[in-house]
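Lab channel / #folding
Pinned by the channel admin:
"Please post every new chain as: sequence first, then the structure tokens as a reply. Keep commentary short and put observations after the output so the thread stays searchable."

First post following the new format, from NK:
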Amino acid sequence: MSASSSFTALDWVAVVVVGLLSLALLTFPFTIAPSFAGIFAEFGGALPAVTRVALTPWASPALGILVASPAVVALALPAASTPALRRAMVVLAFFLGVIALAAAMYAMYAPIFELAGNIKPE
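Reply from TO:
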């Protein structure tokens, strides 16, 4: 096994970051969502669809599994396979994780943005 076919330290850092992004998405309904759900209960109005979906206990963990999948496949591929493909899968998992976490956070703030948009100056 040559050094060019195995992951470098930077590749492993990316794998760890993908793992942390996946962990954040997996724990989202148990750590972050309850705080926002309490705030939204005081609003009394209907929540946007994206917020209702993000508050379900399955949406963010499903995204976490989706994010982790390319990295797990990249780690499962034999080191003799093309390292460029393995790195591309880890990079794909990273960008999926960033986008998914940003979407989950947007979903939590969407009612606040909507409420702020309804304020009319006198």
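NK: The radius of gyration is 19 Å.
TO: also worth noting, The chain has five helices and no strands.
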